[in-house]
Amino acid sequence: MWRIWRRVGSLSPLFSSPKSSILRQAPYRLNFLGILSTENGTPATIGFFSKEKTPFIAFVLGGPGSGKGTQCAKIAEAFGFTHLSAGDLLRKEISSNSENGAMILATITEGKIVPSGVTIKLIRREMESIENNKFLIDGFPRSEENRIAFERITGVEPNIVLFFDCPEDEMVKRVLGRKQGRVDDNIDTIKKRLKVFAALNLPVINHYTRRGKVYKINAVGTIDEVFEKVRQVFDDCKQMIK
To answer: Is 140 labelled as part of a ligand binding site?
Structure first.
């Protein structure tokens, strides 16, 4: 049977549009600090899961406007996954007025990137607090540093990686058409965000492609049309999902 998703062997260029201005791969410089610490300052240990069974983890990647968040909601409903958005977890922590939340807010306000270990700690805490054993991690890892930190701290890799492939022009149109977009959403800022996404995410996607974990999904079409492509992936993976 011909599949409308592809398990890929190569992902360069990242986006499918031949007109995309982000086809050129920016050189990526790894700057990962070897030791990540826990709250008490001791080195983080590998394999944090206290669950009896290692969870099934799907990383969900795609540029702004690719529709990955919408599809995550449908996957969660149809297949019983818990949807964890890295961005939502950071915002939730900020709104809690905790010391950790204040640090996150200060980091973002200064235009800096929240340390990988902080985001992973939030993801870990959420996963440990939920009885479900199937997780969609949306928008993370955003970079090779994130990926390496996640695998180092958790001791696990994702079972699969969903990459929602969408032409740049289509993503720009979708973001501009959102009723509740970011205050700085305009063509120039959106294209800058797409360039950053491509530069940081391409190494992650290529790594997992080499590991045979990436499912590249054509994200063009209606929500239901795209979900039918997604459904085929999960139907094919049902033996892995217990």
So the answer is: yes
